[in-house]
């Protein structure tokens, strides 16, 4: 099956992606409604954000340039210090932006 990306084809693709996104989000909430939230489950959920962050950044650090490596280092250090993913991501973005601006 192919869709033309000109005209209404683009809108159809966006709508399909929106439906799939909503289904996965609502499906996750629905599935978790059957899981008892214990201390161990809470720890697992808390650890997921950090592990997803590392899984996204590691290939870029390994295959990327020095700016990507600096961003990975800044993100990792900030995550270890603050234990919050959003400031860690911001630190990585700022580090790579400054590196590429000054280089």
UniProtKB/TrEMBL annotation:
Transmembrane segments: 12-32, 44-64, 70-99
Cross-referenced InterPro entries: Brnchd-chn_aa_trnsp_AzlD
Any Pfam family the entry gives: AzlD
Keywords: Membrane, Transmembrane, Transmembrane helix
Listed name of the protein: Branched-chain amino acid transporter
